Amino acid sequence: MQQPKVSVRGLYKIFGDNISEAQKLLAQGLGKDEVFSRTGHVVGVNNVSFDVAAGDIYVLMGLSGSGKSTLIRLINRLVEPSSGSINIDGEDIARLPPHELVKWRRRRVAMVFQSFALMPHRSVLDNAAFGLEMAGVDRRTREERAMAVLGQVGLQTYAAKYPSQLSGGMQQRVGLARALAVDPDILLMDEAFSALDPLKRVEMQGLMLELQREHRRTVIFVSHDLEEALRIGSRIGIMEGGNLVQEGTAHEIITRPANDYVRRFFKGVDTSRYLTAVDLLDSSLQGQSFGDHQRIAASTPLPEAMKIVLGIDQPVSVFDDTNRLLGAISARSLLQKIAQEARHV
Ligand SMILES: Nc1ncnc2c1ncn2[C@@H]1O[C@H](COP(=O)(O)OP(=O)(O)OP(=O)(O)O)[C@@H](O)[C@H]1O
Ligand SMILES: [Mg+2]
């Protein structure tokens, strides 16, 4: 496997001054609440390990207080780890001395928060150029670059305006432009779209995916919204009480939720919208091909794939976008799957 871009191992954040005592209790299997009642220490992040591949959007999801913000802030050490490692391109960020850390942050990483945190007395252009100014980039270069990223987020014509003259959605775009302007390798986004109304939110998710197609950045994105996670996440990590209780692709999370806590996020969400033909493959037909006229793309959305399969009384072959045969779906296996699902609801 390709070397991951970000590799987190055994990461802990315990808020308090006797970390080893709290860690000892955690190692004995005690939960966050018990550790708090015995030591008064708050477990922010408990022994978390995960990898993020270059160019992926990794979404961290979980209820309020589950440790999402703490975890994402540990990545660039806005929060200092209690123990564990954060490898990025083979370098352990947890061990960087302060002056190296400042340099690393300026060069490689940018963060977007829920509150737009724009400077009200500065124009949109100057806000977008702020990170570059901090990095000591000369005025002409930074304004050119800021203008280019404002173009990417559709705000070029607003460059001379002030934040108060923009809608919330537009302000969040400026926040995103400011982060993109420094051309970060890694983009950390904490509930970046949560303050937006649902329509604006979906629009920003679309913009993210569009930007990703052009410049594949490694993005870690915190959200408490499963639909957002399913829409934009290459992989999703689910946090509960400081623990990463499950991680995987949208497909893995939907088809094999680790526990009831994970399942609870599905309530009111039509998860089948996020599944595709791949999720219907019949393992008993592995390796068989059924002629070219009955073929569909792996990315065919589930409802459409079902319609096709149920309309033909022969198995349908499924190919990926490199034209590789992945397997086949039969009406029989499909009906079995539906019956199985029905029993689980
Ligand atoms: N500076 C701090 N001092 C003490 N405890 C903290 C601190 N920051 C966070 N915590 C605690 O760590 C836990 C995780 O908080 P965190 O902010 O990471 O959660 P979250 O998942 O981001 O929640 P939300 O969805 O509300 O933003 C909580 O119990 C919180 O009270
Ligand atoms: Mg948070």
Task: Summarize the model shown.
With 345 residues, the chain is α/β, with parallel strands linked by helices. It has 14 helices and 13 strands. It is globular, with a radius of gyration of 23 Å.
Describe this structure in words.
The chain has 345 residues and is of the alpha/beta class. The chain folds into two domains: 219 residues, P-loop containing nucleotide triphosphate hydrolases (Rossmann fold, 3-Layer(aba) Sandwich), CATH 3.40.50.300; 70 residues, CBS domain Like (Alpha-Beta Complex). It is 39% helix and 21% strand. The protein is built from 14 helices and 13 strands. The strands form three sheets. A six-stranded mixed beta sheet has the order 6-7-8-3-9-10, sandwiched between helices. A four-stranded antiparallel beta sheet has the order 2-1-4-5, sandwiched between helices. A three-stranded mixed beta sheet has the order 11-12-13. Strand 7, helix 9 and strand 8 form a beta-alpha-beta unit. Helix 1 crosses helix 2 and helix 7 crosses helix 8. The longest helix is centred in the middle third of the chain and has 17 residues. The protein is globular, with a radius of gyration of 23 Å. The two termini are 36 Å apart. The site of adenosine-5'-triphosphate has 12 residues, from strand 2 and helix 3. Magnesium ion binds next to helix 3.
CATH topology category name of the largest domain: Rossmann fold
The parts where pLDDT drops under 50 for at least 5 residues are none
What is the overall silhouette? globular
CATH H level, superfamily name of the largest domain: P-loop containing nucleotide triphosphate hydrolases
Number of strands: 13
Structural class category: alpha/beta
**Total separate domains:** 2
Strand neighbour order, sheet with most strands: 6-7-8-3-9-10
Helix content: 25-40%
Q: State the CATH architecture of the largest domain.
A: 3-Layer(aba) Sandwich
Tell me the strand percentage band.
15-25%
What's the level 1 CATH class of the largest domain?
A: Alpha Beta
What is the tally of helical segments? 14
The termini sit apart by 36 Å
Oligomeric state of this protein: single chain
Main β-sheet, in a few words?
6 strands, mixed
Radius of gyration: 23 Å
Overall pLDDT metric: 91
- The SSE order reads EHHEEHEEHEHHHHEHEHEEHHEHEEH
